[in-house]
Amino acid sequence: MTQRIEMQICLGSSCFSRGNKDVVMFIKEYLRKNHLDDKVIFKGARCMGHCSNGPNLNINGVIVEGVTLSRIENILEKEFARFI
Ligand code: FES
Q1: CA of 51 to the centre of ligand 1 (A)
Q2: Cβ-Cβ contacts under 8 Å for 43 (sequence gap 6 or more)
Q3: Which atom of ligand 1 is nearest to the CA of 53?
Q4: pTM here?
Q5: Could you tell me if 56 and 9 are in contact, meaning their C-beta atoms sit under 8 angstroms apart?
Q6: Side-chain half-sphere of 22: how many Cα atoms within 13 Å?
Q7: Per-residue pLDDT tens for 12-71?
Q8: Contacts for 15 with CB less than 8 Å, ≥ 6 apart
Q9: What is the CA(37)–ligand 1 centre distance, in A?
Q10: How would you class 41 by CB atoms within 10 Å of its CB: exposed for 0-12, middle for 13-18, buried for 19 or more?
Q11: β-sheet bridge partners, residue 62
Q12: Residue 3 and residue 50: Cα distance in Å, rounded?
C-alpha cells in the first residue's frame, strides 16, 4: 500500500531568516527529480512555534527542526527511502 506523505515547511519570518527559501527550492527539485510529486503533498505553513530551532518542517504531523540546506538531503532520503 502506498502511503502519501504530507510535508509542510514553515514560512514564518524566523525560519525565513534562517534560509527556508533555499530549502523550499531544494525540496521542490528533489521531489521532481525523484518523481515524488504525486506521493508527497508539499505546502507552506505558518509559524510552528519552534522559531529558534528553524527552519522547521512538519512531516506527517512530526516537526523536524534545524532543516538547513546541508541537512535536508539526508532528511528527505531517510523519509522517502521506501518510495525511491
Ligand atoms: S518562524 Fe518558523 S517556527 Fe516560527
Answers
A1: 4
A2: 6, 7, 8, 9
A3: 3
A4: 0.92
A5: yes
A6: 12
A7: 999 999 999 999 999 999 999 999 999 999 999 999 999 999 999 999 999 999 999 999
A8: 9, 47, 51, 54, 55, 56
A9: 25
A10: exposed
A11: 59
A12: 27
Residue 47 to residue 70: CA distance in whole angstroms? 22
Q: Extract the C-alpha cell encoding 30.
A: 528533489
Q: What is the CA radius of gyration of the chain?
A: 12
58 Cα to the center of ligand 1, angstroms: 11
Residue type at 40 in one-letter notation? V
Please report which residue ranges of 1-84 form alpha helices under DSSP H.
13-17, 20-33, 69-80
Specify the pLDDT at position 16: 97
